[in-house]
């Protein structure tokens, strides 16, 4: 992600905000779309395109769960583990997926294909237990077998052109 | 109990009103039309008369909140729609956005006319990726049709909406944290006063309302505030969406007239009841940040005041139900972990206290409790965490645990000495 | 005034006062951590100051609740005490119990408040949050994230005071940590203030790590002699060594507000640098040898008493007013008649109109509606002044910076880069900015305006014509206004007399003329001087030529008064006496008068100061007691200095712009602590000039003025002006200052590529 690309992305929305600081979050989200996470270069580009310090940009980025400052897998599997999902078996889904992916709890598979994360309520308790691939549709209710099928399908699918996490 | 006139057009006229044509065919924009025919002050008065209360959780009268905005400050006035729906157990705004985005857009336009706002924002949580796309498309469509843009409120009278996506932080549902996030900062609550009505977004007068609140404005302005106020009771007029989840057979959103439906009816008649042989053990009726209530409170009619009467809150209407297969300590622990994860870290009691609660409850669940000593520790910590912070997150973290301990003390004492094995989760596929 | 009740006592406080301050004024302590008004509005984060306000729901933070009439506040009832106890218990929940090995132990607000307001014992047995520690935030500042209580102070300092935007919070909740971008070092001129601000041992000074414990040390309030700002500091002594310099805990709000620069903070290791002179040296027919101080003074007196000796006394920098005064006294008592007393290399004439302007104090900048910086660069010359200017801008003042140098203020203020040598060009813009202002403060650079008397006269006229406008002279010397008030002038006549062979004995006090402006001329002139007596703390270029060397104490070790650039006379107090064989200049000077048989009546600097105050009108009415804690402002006599003719630069080539960053001065070069931030002595060129020469950054170039030449490393900087060569001076070893005219007036230099091996002559 270059500063120039970011500037082009931000140009049409600049007039919508009285303070250019507001551009930081959209810029971070957009920059993350490239590689699926925010490496220091991407954050530096955000800093330059928005006119704020790199430290400040990183400080903002690190506050939010869905901005990744460390590399994550090609797809992030977000398993909701908050109360409604827990009551409906989210822990079992998570453990089943971790087993299936060969992970010891949360983490990224060795092949870099998947990151498995426990997340807090994603607003789909009617579909509990549910999960979400990146920031995609909340999927549920799931049985452990559904979850592994989903992983298999994803493994076959191409990486998204741009990430929305 | 049934809702005669739904406030939400998609519930009345087919499930999906995701195009402007469909929405207008279902009566969309008649509310705005009526609003534009009156003065902004009359529109504000209509909000007031409807008795509409904020649907995000605090239940503050919407018309009064709007009337706090100072006029002629020389600064722009902003409207910010809080679509950061992150309260555990709550998914009603998601439904409105997915199925009926134009009603929200129209509602914001109406509010924009009333308070003299030209630029409004919808702050939607980062996890709502798909929902964000639906809203973005609807905003674009409305703009292309002239419903937003330079002439949205009549020739030369602009109003437009900017969609702003969060990136994963529950605290951004707190209005001042939301404003900070929208201003490109870490989403940490501000010291109040000044309140957002006076100095909100970019230090300007700002009206912040929840999706459900703003989406209620079109029918109110179309059918008249008296129509709305006639539903429900005096202090809790209108309808409210309840999200029901947990150990119910038919989880989902249900719109009820406030004060006319009991919690029992919501759970058993609307949400499909419980599994065979199971009984209600605990209900968090207004999202997870409210005191939990037990089966003895099932017959309360759902409205703001009555729920207060049984020691809890209507909150966001995110009703989480746990049947007697569940362990209350385990449930409390899970919620404590949620609040620990979501504490922004600004205030000491919340930053340090939420983690402490989670650690104690975790020990208890895992059989490493210290019996009564842990109970006493918990009890002494509650008051050191709640009521001592900038924003209500810490109170929200304490209330469900504290109320659970009060209500199920014996179970807490038992788990504090014996631990609690993980119960079988409910794996039944929902009905319908 | 508002009357309210705190703990049953009636308390009066001005409207708008926060409860915590109202209580403090009434002698009631409400514990705090995050509250620090110098950092801006309260954040209300730590919750330590929760108090009960009757009639208000819940507890209130006393730091953010303004007083109101008839308010009834309880800070020590059961509810408030439980809140204090509770917040401390929670603060300690994740705080490591490593007080015994923590540098903050014993002077730690968290420790103190826990003792006073907190729980008697710990109830937590949960595992604490762990971070690897300590982290090197910079070579000077260490960060222990486990100890951090997330009080926001350091972050707010970085963001809202220094505005360097480097220190931030990362992550959230109980994983919140202080960090820089990607772990980069925290760089800046003011980083050490975060250590003073930290209420726990999270941020500590690396050079002070494990050096001392609070019960082993003695703290002495004093003044920094690093530049003409006059920042108040506290010196920490142990075992006769200065172990630490910090901002004064009770800041001088009219000067530094408690902020000091890193050069001032970490310059003290220079006291122990290898070139420190630890003993007097006598050179005579026997040879060159160390002698006792008493003998050395006697030898000096022996030279000075000679009826035929024509004596010159040359003062360098820093010099206390007592030393200046006693040098004048000595001059009356020596050799063939009154000695010439002069200040080395100070900027020249033409400043009369500027110096006649009404003066301002640093805190006047806070209230200013317009702040103009004309010439110089406070950010590098008087760093703490930068913080005031930034504060004024944040408060809404219009701030404009004029001059030929790039400045750290450029990004956030109006920057008007003038063509080198043409400050005059800024006159129109200055007039515009001053137009309609009511409380303008103009900071002007002594050296730059002395080089352009025509601009000085014009600008002085503009300021004079602006109602309410006041001026601050950014002085080249630490105590310039003080020595000027004593009537001590430039060294032009002394040098001329020396060159003419009319001087037999030169006494230098903290002065190295060979390294200073026109150093080559001085070197030449000194050849004809019979006896050179040098008083210096560190070896200089003349130490090897001196017949007698008397070791001096440094300003961190001596007593006396310095007069800052705003004319504020403040007391130096000796923090330690590192070199037993050394003495303060005032001690030596008094000793000499005794040896000469015409003793001055003074035995102490306090007595000398009282006497000079009686004899010199600007100091009238002052003595050490009157100076008190925060000093007193003197008014130097008006200067009749009508010469406003434009001065043409000497020589040919590119105009020389001299830059004198304190981070590149002799002390900075001598202090090993500052090795990571010291500014090298170098030459700066614009890319266009560098292209013309065909050189790039790090190349070595030869710079030649009519006063001498030097070979120095090059830095190419796009912010520099074409047609000029920027000469960053400071390292005495490089002797770059000597390329300048004696009065630092305008001069041109021929710049050429140096051969690979070529070094300074």
CATH structural fold name of the largest domain in chain B = Rossmann fold
Question: According to CATH, what is the topology of the largest domain in chain C?
Answer: Rossmann fold
Strand content of chain C: 15-25%
CATH top level label of the largest domain in chain C: Alpha Beta
CATH architecture of the largest domain in chain C: 3-Layer(aba) Sandwich
**How many helical stretches of chain C?**
23
- Global Rg of chain B: 22 Å
Largest interface: A-B, 55 and 66 residues
Q: Structural class, judged by helices and strands of chain C?
A: alpha/beta
Low-confidence stretches of chain B: none
The helix content of chain B is: 40-55%
Mean pLDDT of chain B: 96
Q: H/E series of chain B, N to C? A: HHHHHEHHEHEHEHHHEEHEEHEHHHHH
Task: Report the span from N to C terminus of chain C.
Answer: 69 Å
Number of alpha- plus pi-helical segments of chain B: 19
Class of secondary structure makeup of chain B: alpha/beta
Neighbour order of strands in the largest sheet of chain B: 6-5-9-7-8
Q: What topology, given as strand order, has the largest sheet of chain C?
A: 15-14-26-25-24-16-17-23
Which helices and strands appear, and what pairs or packs with what?
The complex is a heterotrimer of chains A (165), B (432) and C (761).
Chain A: H1 3-10, H2 24-35, H3 40-50, H4 54-63, E1 75-80, H5 83-87, H6 90-101, E2 107-108, E3 114-119, E4 131-133, E5 138-139, H7 144-156
Parallel strand pairs in A: 1-3
Antiparallel strand pairs in A: 1-4, 2-3, 4-5
Helix pairs in contact in A: 1-3, 2-3, 3-4, 6-7
Chain B: H1 9-12, H2 20-25, H3 30-36, H4 40-50, H5 62-67, E1 77-83, H6 92-99, H7 101-115, E2 117-124, H8 129-144, E3 160-165, H9 175-182, E4 206-210, H10 211-215, H11 217-223, H12 225-230, E5 239-246, E6 252-257, H13 263-270, E7 280-284, E8 293-294, H14 304-309, E9 318-323, H15 328-342, H16 348-365, H17 372-385, H18 393-407, H19 409-418
Parallel strand pairs in B: 1-2, 1-4, 2-3, 5-9
Antiparallel strand pairs in B: 5-6, 7-8, 7-9
Helix pairs in contact in B: 3-7, 3-11, 4-7, 6-7, 15-16, 15-18, 16-17, 16-18, 16-19, 17-18, 18-19
Chain C: E1 2-6, E2 9-13, H1 19-25, E3 50-53, E4 60-61, E5 72-74, H2 78-93, H3 109-117, E6 135-136, E7 141-143, H4 153-161, E8 168-170, E9 177-179, H5 193-197, E10 203-205, E11 218-223, E12 232-238, E13 241-247, H6 262-265, E14 281-284, E15 287-290, H7 293-304, E16 311-315, H8 321-331, E17 340-343, H9 352-355, H10 362-367, E18 370-374, H11 378-381, H12 383-394, E19 398-403, E20 414-417, H13 427-434, E21 441-445, H14 446-451, H15 453-464, E22 470-474, H16 480-485, E23 489-490, H17 492-499, E24 505-509, H18 519-526, E25 531-536, E26 548-551, E27 560-563, E28 568-572, H19 585-595, H20 605-615, H21 624-627, E29 632-633, E30 654-659, H22 666-670, E31 682-685, H23 687-693, E32 700-705, E33 708-716, E34 724-728, E35 748-753
Parallel strand pairs in C: 1-5, 16-17, 16-24, 17-23, 18-19, 18-21, 19-20, 21-22, 24-25, 25-26, 30-34, 31-33
Antiparallel strand pairs in C: 1-2, 3-4, 3-5, 6-7, 7-10, 8-9, 11-12, 12-13, 14-15, 14-26, 27-28, 28-29, 30-35, 31-34, 32-33, 32-35
Helix pairs in contact in C: 2-3, 7-19, 8-19, 8-20, 13-15, 17-18
């Amino acid at each position: 992600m270059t500063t120039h690309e970011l500037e082009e992305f931000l140009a049409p929305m600049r007039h919508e905000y009285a303070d250019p600081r507001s551009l930081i979050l959209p810029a971070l989200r957009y920059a993350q779309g490239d590689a699926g996470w925010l490496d220091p270069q991407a954050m530096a580009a955000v800093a330059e395109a928005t006119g704020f310090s790199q430290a400040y940009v990183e400080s903002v980025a690190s506050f939010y769960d869905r901005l990744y400052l460390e590399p994550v897998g090609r797809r992030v599997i977000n398993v909701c583990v908050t109360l409604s999902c827990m009551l409906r078996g989210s822990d079992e889904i998570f453990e089943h997926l971790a087993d299936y992916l060969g992970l010891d709890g949360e983490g990224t598979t060795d092949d870099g294909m998947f990151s498995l994360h426990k997340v807090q309520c994603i607003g789909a308790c009617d579909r509990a237990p549910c999960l979400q691939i990146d920031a995609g549709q909340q999927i549920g209710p799931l049985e452990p077998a559904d979850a592994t099928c989903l992983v298999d399908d994803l493994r076959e699918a191409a990486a998204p052109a741009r990430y929305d996490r | 109990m049934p809702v005669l006139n739904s406030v939400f057009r998609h519930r009345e006229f087919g499930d999906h009103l995701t195009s402007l044509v469909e929405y207008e065919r279902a009566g969309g924009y008649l509310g705005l039309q009526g609003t534009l025919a009156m003065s902004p002050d009359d529109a504000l008065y209509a909000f007031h008369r409807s008795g509409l209360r904020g649907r995000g959780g605090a239940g503050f009268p919407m018309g009064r909140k709007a009337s706090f905005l100072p006029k002629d400050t020389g600064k722009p006035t902003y409207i910010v729609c809080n679509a950061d729906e992150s309260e555990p157990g709550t998914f009603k705004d998601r439904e409105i956005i997915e199925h009926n985005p134009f009603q929200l857009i129209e509602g914001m336009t109406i509010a924009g006319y009333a308070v003299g706002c030209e630029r409004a924002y919808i702050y939607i949580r980062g996890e709502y990726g798909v929902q964000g796309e639906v809203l973005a498309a609807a905003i674009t469509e409305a703009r292309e049709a002239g419903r937003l843009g330079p002439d949205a409120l009549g020739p030369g009278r602009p109003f437009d909406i900017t969609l702003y996506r969060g990136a994963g932080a529950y605290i951004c549902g707190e209005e001042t944290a939301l404003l900070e996030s929208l201003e490109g900062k870490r989403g940490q609550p501000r010291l109040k006063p000044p309140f957002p009505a006076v100095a909100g977004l970019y230090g300007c007068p700002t009206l912040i309302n929840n999706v459900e609140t703003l989406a209620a404005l079109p029918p109110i302005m179309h059918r008249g505030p008296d129509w709305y106020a006639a539903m429900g009771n005096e202090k809790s007029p209108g309808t409210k969406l309840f999200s029901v989840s947990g150990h119910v057979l038919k989880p989902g959103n249900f719109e009820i007239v406030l004060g006319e439906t009991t919690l029992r009816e919501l759970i058993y008649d609307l949400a499909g009841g419980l599994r065979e042989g199971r009984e209600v053990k605990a209900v968090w009726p207004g999202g997870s940040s409210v005191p939990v209530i037990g089966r003895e409170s099932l017959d309360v009619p759902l409205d703001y005041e009555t729920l207060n009467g049984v020691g809890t809150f209507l909150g966001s209407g995110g009703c989480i139900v746990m049947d007697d297969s569940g362990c209350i300590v385990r449930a409390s622990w899970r919620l404590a972990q949620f609040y620990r994860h979501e504490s922004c870290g600004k205030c000491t009691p919340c930053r340090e206290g939420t983690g402490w609660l989670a650690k104690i409850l975790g020990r208890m669940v895992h059989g490493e409790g210290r019996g009564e000593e842990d109970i006493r520790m918990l009890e002494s910590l509650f008051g050191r965490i709640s009521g001592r912070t900038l924003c209500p997150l810490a109170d929200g973290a304490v209330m469900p645990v504290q109320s659970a301990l009060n209500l199920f003390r014996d179970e807490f004492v038992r788990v504090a000495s014996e631990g609690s094995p993980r119960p079988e989760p409910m794996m039944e596929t929902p009905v319908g | 005034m508002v009357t309210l009740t705190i703990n049953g006592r009636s308390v009066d406080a001005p409207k708008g006062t926060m409860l915590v301050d109202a209580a403090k004024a009434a002698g009631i302590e409400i514990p705090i951590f995050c509250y620090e008004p110098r950092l801006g509005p309260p954040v209300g984060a730590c919750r330590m100051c929760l108090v009960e306000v009757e009639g208000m729901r819940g507890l209130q933070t006393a730091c953010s609740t303004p007083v109101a009439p008839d308010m009834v506040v309880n800070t020590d009832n059961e509810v408030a005490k439980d809140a204090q106890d509770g917040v401390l218990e929670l603060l300690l929940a994740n705080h490591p119990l490593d007080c015994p090995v923590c540098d903050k132990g014993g002077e730690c607000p968290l420790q103190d408040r826990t003792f006073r307001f907190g729980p008697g014992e710990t109830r937590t047995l949960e595992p604490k949050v762990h971070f690897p520690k300590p982290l090197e935030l910079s070579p000077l500042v260490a960060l222990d994230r486990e100890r951090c209580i997330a009080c926001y102070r350091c972050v707010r300092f970085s963001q809202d005071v220094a505005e360097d935007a480097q220190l931030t919070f990362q992550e959230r909740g109980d994983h919140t940590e202080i960090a820089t971008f990607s772990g980069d070092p925290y760089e800046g001129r003011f980083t050490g203030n975060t250590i003073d601000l930290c209420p726990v041992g999270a941020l500590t000074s690396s050079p002070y790590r494990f050096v001392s414990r609070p019960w082993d040390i003695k703290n002495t309030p004093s003044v920094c002699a690093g530049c003409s700002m006059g920042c108040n500091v506290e010196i920490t002594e142990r075992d006769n060594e200065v172990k630490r310099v910090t901002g004064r805990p009770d800041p001088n709000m009219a000067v530094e507000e408690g902020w000091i620069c890193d050069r001032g903070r970490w310059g003290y290791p220079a006291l122990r640098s290898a070139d420190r002179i630890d003993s007097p040296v006598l050179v005579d027919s026997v040879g060159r040898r160390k002698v006792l101080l008493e003998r050395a003074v006697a030898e000096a007196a022996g030279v000075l008493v000679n009826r035929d000796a024509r004596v010159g006394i040359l003062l360098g920098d820093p010099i206390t007013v007592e030393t200046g005064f006693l040098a004048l006294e000595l001059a009356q008592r020596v050799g063939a008649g009154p000695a010439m007393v002069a200040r080395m290399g100070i900027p020249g004439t033409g400043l009369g109109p500027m110096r006649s302007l009404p003066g301002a104090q640093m805190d006047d900048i806070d209230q200013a509606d317009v702040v103009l910086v004309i010439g110089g660069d406070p950010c590098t010359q008087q760093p703490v002044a930068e913080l005031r200017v930034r504060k004024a801008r944040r408060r809404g003042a219009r701030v404009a910076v004029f001059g030929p140098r790039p400045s750290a203020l450029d990004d956030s203020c109006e920057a008007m880069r003038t063509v080198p040598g043409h400050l005059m060009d800024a006159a129109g813009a200055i007039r515009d900015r001053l137009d309609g202002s009511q409380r303008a403060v103009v900071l002007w650079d002594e050296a730059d305006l002395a080089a352009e008397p025509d601009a000085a006269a014009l600008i002085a006229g503009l300021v004079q014509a602006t109602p309410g406008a006041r001026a601050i002279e950014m002085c080249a010397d630490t105590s310039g206004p003080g020595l000027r008030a004593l009537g001590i002038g430039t060294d032009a006549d002394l040098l001329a007399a020396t060159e003419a062979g009319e001087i037999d004995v030169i006494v230098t006090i903290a002065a190295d003329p060979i390294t200073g402006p026109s150093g080559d001329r001085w070197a030449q002139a000194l050849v004809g001087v019979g006896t050179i007596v040098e008083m210096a703390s560190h070896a200089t270029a003349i130490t090897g030529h001196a017949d007698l060397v008397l070791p001096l104490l440094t300003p961190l070790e001596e007593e006396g008064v310095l007069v800052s650039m705003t004319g504020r006379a403040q007391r130096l107090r000796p923090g330690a006496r590192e070199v037993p064989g050394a003495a303060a200049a005032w001690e030596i000077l008094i000793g000499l008068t005794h040896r000469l048989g015409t003793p001055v009546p003074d035995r102490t600097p306090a007595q000398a100061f009282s006497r000079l105050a009686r004899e010199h009108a600007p100091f009238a009415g002052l003595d050490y007691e009157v100076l008190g804690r925060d000093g007193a402002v003197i008014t130097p006599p008006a200067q009749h200095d009508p010469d406003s003719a434009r001065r043409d630069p000497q020589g040919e080539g590119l105009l020389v712009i001299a830059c004198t960053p304190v981070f590149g001065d002799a002390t900075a070069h001598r202090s090993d602590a500052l090795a990571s931030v010291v500014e090298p002595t170098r030459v700066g060129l614009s890319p266009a000039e560098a292209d013309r020469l065909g050189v790039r950054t790090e190349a070595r170039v030869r710079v030649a003025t009519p006063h001498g030449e030097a070979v120095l490393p090059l830095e190419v900087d796009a912010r520099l002006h074409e047609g000029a060569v920027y000469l960053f001076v400071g390292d005495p070893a490089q002797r770059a200052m000597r390329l300048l005219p004696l009065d630092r007036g305008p001069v041109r230099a021929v710049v050429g590529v140096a051969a690979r091996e070529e070094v300074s002559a």
